[in-house]
Amino acid sequence: MITVLYFARLREALGKASEQIALPAGVTDLGALRALLRSRGGAWAEEMADGKAVRAAVNQDIAHGDTRINDGDEVAFFPPVTGG
Amino acid sequence: MITVLYFARLREALGKASEQIALPAGVTDLGALRALLRSRGGAWAEEMADGKAVRAAVNQDIAHGDTRINDGDEVAFFPPVTGG
Amino acid sequence: MTVRIQTKDFDAGREIAALRQGDPGIGAIASFVGVVRNVNDGDKVTEMTLEHYPGMTEKSIARIIGQAKSRWNIFDALVVHRVGRLKPLDQIVLVVVTGAHRGDAFAACEFIMDYLKTRAPFWKKEQTPEGERWVESRESDDIAAGRWRLKG
Amino acid sequence: MTVRIQTKDFDAGREIAALRQGDPGIGAIASFVGVVRNVNDGDKVTEMTLEHYPGMTEKSIARIIGQAKSRWNIFDALVVHRVGRLKPLDQIVLVVVTGAHRGDAFAACEFIMDYLKTRAPFWKKEQTPEGERWVESRESDDIAAGRWRLKG
């Protein structure tokens, strides 16, 4: 199981702040996880589309498509930050 | 008459914070005034020597050797500033 | 170093006094206060909500301060960042950097602010007369952060 | 703009609050506080006395702020400078600059500080265990002020 968090516009569009996901076989990196979420269709297909500016972190470090994901990880998806 | 002010190390070395001077004929710029003060000898000769880093202002604006001096002016001599 | 994420307001004078307390080697303190403006991209803003990623926020800001310390000759740094509902004129963020001399303190303070605006996980939602909107990432902020990379 | 030369201490938080009061267009406030250090050029400093040229000081600082306003997009600036006897840990100078955005506020604040250190008529006398001495003009300060001229 991994924990997946959604922030800001993404959280609102997906209607979800967090969820637990059991990683299917073959989903070993962030890119594969994003594809899995996209395959849910609807808002998921739209918000996780390749053209969308989605940022991600794995265990609170900025991550990219090829970042490995392991059981127990905390993964977060969010829009580009607009702080301060 | 002009008012001449001395600040900081210069004030201490010359033993004077200010004085009124009647400008002699021919003393029309700052360089000539400095030469006049230098001609007093002693500490004046030393502190107003050409090699000394002396700064000056006329009517509270930074001035140079060729800055004109007129009756009623406020002239100040001081070391390079060391503020803040 | 100190990093605080909080909903309540802060007093820059008190934070500066606390950060420099008792260190007679400090000669320079550079500070920055960010404030909510009543306009953004030409539209009137009546209120905003600042959301963040608890945990990652503190961790990423601590890392930024560490980078500043390795790059400039500074003594200490403080970041206080507010979250939640904020109105125009409210203070949002405070950065204070202490050092022996002003050049390093200024550079490190601006460096930390640039990174806060472009890398730390904060998201701003604005309420305008036309409704709510999430603020989009600003190109000028990305340019400001990029400057430092060129210098590395 | 505000320029104050005074013997008494100041509170940076209160001065920042007063300068930005009621202006909802301000988004950025850059500040600098200068503090008396207990060392200078390797020698222990127990006390110092700051002398200035009353009249010219205020006039030259006001001119510097005017230059900053014409060079950067800033709203207002405050300078509070103490004179008289000061001890290590005492605050000496406060510069606060308000603006819409941080880049201009930081640049103008640093510009004003650089000029305060190199052009405004202040002179520092330090008391050390070996006796009194007038501080000599510092080469690094002249370099900092020179930077801005190149940009003009």
Tell me the structural class of chain A.
alpha+beta
Overall residue-averaged pLDDT value of chain C: 90
Largest beta sheet of chain C: what is the strand line-up? 1-6-8-2
CATH class of chain C: Alpha Beta
List the quaternary state of the chains.
heterotetramer
Number of helices of chain C: 4
Proportion in β-strands of chain C: 35-45%
Helix content range of chain C: 25-40%
Number of DSSP strands of chain A? Answer: 5
Rg for CA atoms of chain C: 16 Å
**SSE series of chain A:** EHEHHEEE
Shape field of chain C = globular
Descriptive overview:
The complex is a heterotetramer, with two copies of chain A (84 residues) and two copies of chain C (152 residues). Chain A contains three helices and five strands. Chain A has helices at residues 8-14, 30-38, 42-47, and strands at residues 2-6, 18-21, 55-58, 61-63, 74-78. Helix content of chain A is 26%, strand content 25%. Chain A has 84 residues and is of the alpha+beta class. Chain A has a five-stranded mixed β-sheet with strand order 2-1-5-3-4. The radius of gyration of chain A is 12 Å and the shape is globular. Chain A has one domain (2-78): Roll (Ubiquitin-like (UB roll)). In chain C, helix 2 packs antiparallel against helix 3 (102-118) and helix 3 (102-118) packs across helix 4. In chain C, strands 1-6-8-2 form a four-stranded mixed β-sheet, with helices on both faces. In chain C, strands 7-5-9-10 form a four-stranded antiparallel β-sheet, with no helix packed on it. In chain C, strands 3-4 form a two-stranded antiparallel ribbon. The model of chain C has no long low-confidence stretch (mean pLDDT 90). Chain C starts with a strand and ends with a helix. Chain C has helices at residues 12-20, 56-71, 102-118, 139-151, and strands spanning 2-6, 28-35, 39-40, 43-44, 47-52, 74-82, 84-86, 91-99, 122-128, 131-134. Chain C has a single domain, classed as Molybdopterin biosynthesis MoaE subunit (Aldehyde Oxidoreductase, domain 3), CATH 3.90.1170.40. Chain C has 152 residues and is an alpha+beta fold. The interface between C and D is large, with 36 and 36 residues.
